[in-house]
Amino acid sequence: MNLGIEGDRILVIGASEGIGYETALALSHEGARVAIASRSAKSIEAAAKRITRATGHAVEPLVVDVMDEAATEALIVAWDNQPLDGLVLATGGSHRAPFTELTDAKWMENYTFNVLGPVRLLRGLLPALKKGRDARVLFFGGAGAKMLHPQQVVSNVHKAGILALAKTLADELAPEGVRVNAICPGRTWTKLWRDRAADFNAKEGLTEEEVVKRFAADIPLKRFAQPDEIAAVATFMMSRQASYLVGQAINVDGGMAKGLL
Ligand SMILES: NC(=O)c1ccc[n+]([C@@H]2O[C@H](COP(=O)([O-])OP(=O)(O)OC[C@H]3O[C@@H](n4cnc5c(N)ncnc54)[C@H](OP(=O)(O)O)[C@@H]3O)[C@@H](O)[C@H]2O)c1
């Protein structure tokens, strides 16, 4: 299938590793002109070089910390309203803790990481997207937006918020030529889970293998996703083949979320 994105300018935020990186790699393989961003100049430059080596296409590395309003504004100013065909907002994460242990600061930190950071970027880059061809935006929710993960109230709330945001903006922006959707990954083996496994090791003495076994038990496929399995669907959603997809939140979770919608 020809995804029809050759030459499209697509910016992926949170892309030095994990799902964002694999999405940028797949988009570049399809011939898109990709820019990638994360906090660390060293990691993002290395990631850009790895992608270029693999695909033969130039990739522009950018530095941004989505938790930092000034840094976000600096990226938007540096973009300078160049036409943008696609924006993938792949930062976000969860904080595993019981409700009683979550301070205001923790709530606000998780909110900025999952919701406000991406909102600021989209708002600032919207004029550039409006100049793009069939412009599309992809937010990252999570399976926890549709089935609630115990001990993860803070990200359950914010990932559900992402779906409301994507649906609302889809309605508002589609008439202006910008298609907005969200993807909801299930448990995916990235740094997020490597760090969590290390936490379980410190607290309960579990090995990485035992953590994976415990958390794969309620996934019908009985395994975690690899980041490229999420990226494949994200890349399709960012393609011209998905030209009539608007306001959807698509689960890629091995069948974990059991709701009908
Ligand atoms: N992995 C899962 O099981 C899972 C499940 C459901 C939903 N998701 C969602 O999928 C998305 C991607 O997750 P992932 O597992 O691929 O994440 P990840 O492996 O932790 O990757 C995070 C990426 O984002 C960058 N990053 C981290 N903090 C940043 C910040 N403040 N500003 C800018 N960039 C930042 C990192 O690079 P630097 O360190 O260089 O900044 C890295 O490139 C997230 O929205 C996550 O919530 C993941």
Labels describing this entry:
alpha/beta; globular; binds NADP nicotinamide-adenine-dinucleotide phosphate; 8 helices; 261 residues; Rossmann fold
Would you mind describing this structure in some detail?
With 261 residues, the protein is of the alpha/beta class. The protein folds into two domains: 9-185 and 227-252, NAD(P)-binding Rossmann-like Domain (Rossmann fold, 3-Layer(aba) Sandwich), CATH 3.40.50.720; 189-224, no CATH class. Helices cover 46% and strands 15% of the residues. It contains eight helices and seven strands. The chain has helices spanning 18-29, 41-55, 69-79, 104-130, 153-173, 191-204, 208-216, 227-237; strands spanning 9-13, 33-38, 59-63, 86-89, 135-140, 178-185, 249-252. A seven-stranded parallel β-sheet has the order 3-2-1-4-5-6-7, sandwiched between helices. Helix 4 (104-130) links the parallel strand 4 (86-89) and strand 5. The protein is globular, with a radius of gyration of 18 Å. The two termini are 28 Å apart. It binds NADP nicotinamide-adenine-dinucleotide phosphate.
